[in-house]
Structures are given as structure tokens and as C-alpha cells.
Amino acid sequence: MQIKEGRTSRLKAFIARISRFGWAAIALVLAVFVIGACTIGGFSSYGDPYFAREKSQVVFYLDYSSAGGGKLQEVYVNVGSVYAEEGKDFSLSFARCMAREGSSFTTSTLGEVKLSNIVPSGESIGTNYNWVKVFDLKDKTFSTSYSVIRITVSADLFLNEVVFVNETGDVIPAYTTVAQAKQFFSETLWLSTFRDYFYKNDQTDPEKKLGVLGDPAALVDAQKSFSAGKTVYSNYTQDEMYTLLQLDNLRMKGLTTDGDFFADTDFGPLAVIFPALGTAIFGVSPFGLRIFSVLFTAALVAMCYLLGKNLFKSNGFAFLFACFAAFGGLALTVGRLGLAYSLIALLLVSSLYFIFRYFEDGISEERPLKSAANVLFSGLLFALAVAADPKCLIALVAPVALFIAGWVRQRREQKGELAVLRAQLLERNASEKSEEAMQANIEEFNEKERKALSSQSYSNRVVWVFFFVSFFVASLLFVVLASIPSYFTYLKLYESDPSSPALGLFGLIWAAVKDSFSLANVTQFTSANAINPFGWFLSLKGATLFSAGGEGVYNAVNAQFNLAMTITSLVGFLFMTSYVILYAATGGKKGAYASEHTPRILNAYFLLLAGLVACLLQYLFAGETSAVQSFAFTVFYGGFAVLMFVTAFAHDGSAYKKIAGIRMNATLKVLFGMCIVYALLFLLSLPMVFGFSVPELAASICFGWTTFLNNGYYRP
After folding, report:
1. What does pTM read for this prediction?
2. Strand 157-166 with 50-52, pairing
3. What backbone torsions phi and psi does residue 54 show, to the nearest 5 degrees?
4. Residue 109, exposed/middle/buried by CB under 10 A (0-12, 13-18, 19+)?
């Protein structure tokens, strides 16, 4: 009973310590999660994939009577990985046959449909993983006597689902296996004409090595999940297709293919683990693919609040920092899709949060392990970031710089502790006249010094061991462990002969790590959005992630940092840099710019600068980049706007006046006005953030002016 009461009292005390801005931050995090989870799409999965070899054929029997007897009108397909050249056409050939003796297949009415692999090419329709209407037979004669349909594929590929729809919009049940189709034929007709067709379906993999990948029943196991929509809520973006490619690669395991093999090479091995987990739980659906990204984005907002509390020593400005991260423009676009950017941003920000705690607090001599855990946590989080994207290795400059600065401060404090002991000895011996007493003081000092040196030595060893183990050993370990599920992917991607590998596990991992330092997963939007490595420094060029719509309608998801925040952050960066330069030039601690607030402001400035430089360097050598890659960058970049207001508020001597019942000085008035501007621009950008369609004129008025560079997709 006493234990329960103790827990209850501790819980009440913890809740009582949460400020009103703390509760607001909790509400903000929940809002980001709920908004994200409700706008990432549904649970409709295309079912289990069927692996079809080049030139192989699959035969379907259509049971018209079970769908009300209506004629076939539409045919939909969902194609996964295609092992053909990227951006080139592949074909699905459809033939039909009457269910009677002596019938033969004909391609009239149906015929061949061309699709494009990943990137649309010319007049070819469709892209991977999204539902494509390959035939619309409205106003065309199609007799229900044609109940047998054959599909021939032109390349090794995953055929996820095929759906046949009748005139009334009902799905016509289709069957592909011997056991399913045999019941619809007389014994004579089955044996004489149709048995071999369906028997060959089951024999696509004679040795049954593929499991469900070679089961023709997988082609029709989720027919009612098809969607004819053209929105991001039902379709995947082209960038997400590379994530889905990785999921197909994981399912393939040791299965080899002919033709070109593709994989997501822009990220590290950890990047695919969470989408794989999400789709394992919720199915290969938009929700399953994206839900962990939403979780990481919400966690990033929470971490920004915690980091802001440490940086600005103010719950209010910490909440403002979290709001910038949440509604700046990328959290609700890039952060809601099945991409690894939200995970990487969360890990980098969290790593710098813990290393900054070490920088400020140092090591407690009483609890060295507990206080040094900040270094350990920072390193482990950074190691996970490296496993998610090896390019984060370049960002190591930020935590290392803060660690070294913290170490220098720690050593200075340790030396100061010894200096205090020596000063105490000299003071005591200066008043002593007895040599015996003086010797006793010296011996006492030597004992205290020995204990202090021993304690300091232990603390120093703990810090350095934690640093090397977490930042370097853990990085290597996490990359290796995360690579294990992708072993067969790397085998087929980097071995000239996967059946006789020569590189070994570490050779394959090294090849994958090197590959991630260049941006190779090019889509039609990637090439349109790309600009030089410094081009997204101000986020002036928005990045289109998804585009669809009809005549006179604009429907796209565009990622761009809020333009007003962009300008304010630039002013904040220039203002704070000038402040730091003037502080140093006028004498530092003894100069005109020194105040009680200066240490806090300087610490925040250098943390934000370290994060900014780290994120800039991460993509500096990766080739052309766009706003899509700047998610983590905009977190630190937006922090300069907050820091400018913090600095102005700390030095603001103006009187407080009540406005709408709120006490505000000059700084808060300006901040309040700017927040109104930020909110208005956010509201105007909602159609391009969430991808719902609006008339072209409305799109031009609302957000068409927000980018100075037209990529061909961003503007209507």
C-alpha cells in the first residue's frame, strides 16, 4: 500500500512540474501525430505478390454469374518491382478465350498494354505499386462467353494484383488455380481443353521454392482493395517506390532474377526496417508504409521542445521552437511519407540534445556513470542515424565539436578543483607555525589530491570509453546488424555472380555504404526538384513529391519551408552571427555586449550552428539536392529565428502592456505579429501540404507565388 502511495505521490509531483507550455507541447505532439496518422492514407493492401518470369503466362477464369452477370468493362493491375531498365517500357499482353471446346486465345478487344518502370516514359501509363486501369471497355462489345483471360509478361516482375470489374462496378471473381477453376468446367471440357492452362499456373515454380511469391492465387487475394483514386492518400509517391522496392527485395530473399536489379541505395540498411515492420503489421498499404514516419515526426517535435528548454532556458520559447518544427512545412509533407528523412532528423536532433547536456552539465564526480550516460545516449543515437543514412558520418563534426568543448570544460573544472585544494593548503600553512602541523596539512592535501585525481581519472576514462564505443563501435555494429535483412539485396546488387559471391558480408556492406553517398534514386520529381548542394540553404525552391489531377485542377504535395520562417531565420542567423562577432571583438566577457544572458545565448548559437553545418555537410558531397533532403536542416535553421527573439527579449527593457489580456513587451509584440504571418502562410499552403485538389486559379493565389523557381510541377 505504501509503495502504491509513493508511486502516486511521485506521479503527482511529476505532473505538477509540467508547465503550461509543457502541456501545450504535449498537445502539439499529439496533434502532429493525429493529423499525420489521419492523412497518410488507408489500410487497403494489394495483397501478396506473385513473381512472374519473363514471357511467362497466367490464366484467369472469370465467374461472371457471381458478380450479377454483367459484362467485363474495366481491368486494373498493380505491378511491383520490375526487373527491367528504369524508365523504360515493359508490357502486359492480354488475350481472351471462350470457355468451350476448341476455343483459342485472341487479343482482339484487349491486347497489349505498356507500362513504365518506376519513372513514366513517353505515353506509357502507370508506375509501380499504384493501381492502373489498363482497359476501359465502355462502348466496346465484350461477351461474357469470354471467361478465360491470359496475361503474358515481358520481363521478370512482381504482379501484385489483377482486378476485373463489370458494368455495374462490381468486382468479377477470378480464379487461377486448378482447384478453384476446375469446378466451372465439365470433366470432358476440362480434360480436353483447359486443364493444362491452369496446371501451368501452378507449375510456374515447379520446385515450389518461391512460396507465396509463386502462388497464382496471390494474384486475386485482395481484389476488393483496388482504388481508382489519384491522390497521395491512395497512391504512393515515386520516392516511396524505392522503399517498396526494398520491401520486395526482402521478400525475395535468395531468389535471383534476370534483367536489371533495383534497390534503395540513397539510405542505409536501417531505413527499410521500420517500413517493413509497419507493412508487416498493417499490410502493404499507404498507412502501413508511412505510420512509423509519422511517429518519428511527432517524436522529433517532442525532442525539439526538450532541446529548446536546454538551449533557451524558457518553456515558452522551447514551445515556439517545437511549433516551428511542426508547422514549418516539411514535417507535414516529407515527415508523413514512407521515407527515412523523419527518422534521420529525429536521431540527429536527439544525438545533439544529449551531447549538449554533457557540454553544459559535464560529469558529476559523485555519479560519473549516470552523468556520462549523456555521451553514451548521444553516440548510440548517432550510430542509429549512420545506420539509417551513412551520409550522417559527415555530420559527425557537430557532436564531436560539442564533445571536445565539453571535455575541455570538464578538464578546466577538474584543474580548478585541484587548484582550490592547493589554495586551501597554502592558506592553512600560511597561518601555521608548527612544522608538524604544516606536514600534516600537506599529507592531508596529498590524500585529497590522490582521491580527486583517482576520481577524475575514472570519470575521464568513462567519458572516453562511452564516446568511442557509442559513436564508432556502435556505428559499425548497427550498420552490420541492420544490413543482415538486406543481405540478399546487396548480394544481387553488388555481386556479378550472386550464386558464387566473392565480396563477403563486409565487402557487400562496404559497397552499400559507399553507394549511399550519392543520390541515385532518381524519379521524375527528383530530377525536377534537384538543384546544387547549396540550393536548399534558404529553401526557396519547393520540392514536389506527388502530382496528379485533371484539367483545370491542381493536386500536388509540395515540400517547402514556410517562406516567412525562411526569411525570419535568415535574419536571425545574420543577427546572431553579428552579435557573436561583436561580443568577441569588444572584449568578450568584459566587453559591452556581455551580460548575464550571454553564456546561454552563445551556447544556443553554437549548438544551432553545429547542427546547421552538420546537416549542410551531410548532402554537400551527394550531388544535386532539393528541399526534400533539408528536413533536419530546417529544424536548426528555424532555431535561429527563435534564438533572435530570445536574445531580443533578454535585452528588452521596454514596458509591458496588456494586449487582449496578455502582458507583452516590444519583443513579444513583434513575435506575436510574426506568428500571425506564419499562421496565414501555413493556412494558404494547406492544399499543397496535404495534397487535396483545388482549382488552378486558387492554387496560384494561395501558394503559386511561394517559390521563385518553377520546376514544372510545383506551380499549376
Report:
1. 0.92
2. antiparallel
3. -55, 130
4. middle
